[in-house]
């Protein structure tokens, strides 16, 4: 069965940056399972997988613009130190989750200057070209509920493109507890 829209795809992959540094891998864990054609994974990788089938191996270089996007300077902002709980402990390099219009994002403290804190909410992989080595582990038809939700239901939970649980799936019997 070929990879096409409305099919559920399982892939094993290793992800490295341009310097060869390992960023992510499914090695030692379950393959990543996703519903093809719904932008559940980065666009450049989804396009490269189109038409492949079980057992196929591919190496894909995905430019930043087709991965997690270019870095956006507007996502770097300054907030007063007293907005933070435990302000004494705020230091450069700290990361925390913040709610944004796009859902929860990991935000990094890049500078603490007196009473001002500079935070960066770009995705950690924004601006990076990504190099994937992928093996297609399985391809199957999606069920009706998966198609209605636009994502996979498996193992009692499911993952978004960034590996975080979806938040938009309340009352979904196939999704387990969200
Ligand atoms: Zn669901």
Summarize the structure.
With 178 residues, the protein is mainly β. The protein has helices at 43-49, 144-149, and strands spanning 7-16, 22-25, 32-35, 57-62, 76-80, 95-100, 103-113, 116-120, 130-141.
How would you describe the overall organization of this protein?
It contains two helices and nine strands, in the order βββαββββββα. The relative contact order is 0.24. The chain starts with 6 loop residues before the first strand and ends in a 29-residue tail after the last helix. The strands form two sheets. Strands 1, 2, 3, 4 and 9 form a five-stranded antiparallel sheet that branches. Strands 5-8-7-6 form a four-stranded antiparallel sheet, with no helix packed on it. About 5% of the residues have low confidence. Helix content is 7%, strand content 35%. The chain is mainly beta. The site of zinc ion (ZN) has 7 residues, from loops.
Radius of gyration: 19 Å
- The amount of helix comes to under 10%
The assigned structural class equals mainly beta
The total count of helices amounts to: 2
Topology, element by element:
Blueprint: E1 7-16, E2 22-25, E3 32-35, H1 43-49, E4 57-62, E5 76-80, E6 95-100, E7 103-113, E8 116-120, E9 130-141, H2 144-149
Antiparallel strand pairs: 1-2, 1-3, 1-9, 4-9, 5-8, 6-7, 7-8
Summarize this structure as a short list of keywords or feature phrases:
single chain, 178 residues, mainly beta, 4-stranded antiparallel beta sheet, 9 strands, 7% helix, binds zinc ion
């Amino acid at each position: 069965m070929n990879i096409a829209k409305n099919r559920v795809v399982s892939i094993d992959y290793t992800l490295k940056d341009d310097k060869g540094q390992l960023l992510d891998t499914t090695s030692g864990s379950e393959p990543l399972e996703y519903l093809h054609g719904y932008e559940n994974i980065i666009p450049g990788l989804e396009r490269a997988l189109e038409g492949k089938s079980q057992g196929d191996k591919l190496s894909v270089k995905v430019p930043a613009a087709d991965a997690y996007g270019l870095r956006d300077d507007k996502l770097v902002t300054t907030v007063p130190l007293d907005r933070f709980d435990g302000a004494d402990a705020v230091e450069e390099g700290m990361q925390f989750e913040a709610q944004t219009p796009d859902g929860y994002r990991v935000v990094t403290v890049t500078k603490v200057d007196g009473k001002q804190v500079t935070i960066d909410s770009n995705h950690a992989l924004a601006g990076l070209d990504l190099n994937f080595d992928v093996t297609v582990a399985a391809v199957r038809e999606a069920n009706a509920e998966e198609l209605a939700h636009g994502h996979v239901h498996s193992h009692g939970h499911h993952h978004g493109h960034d590996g975080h649980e979806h938040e938009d799936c309340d009352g979904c019997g196939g999704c387990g507890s969200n």
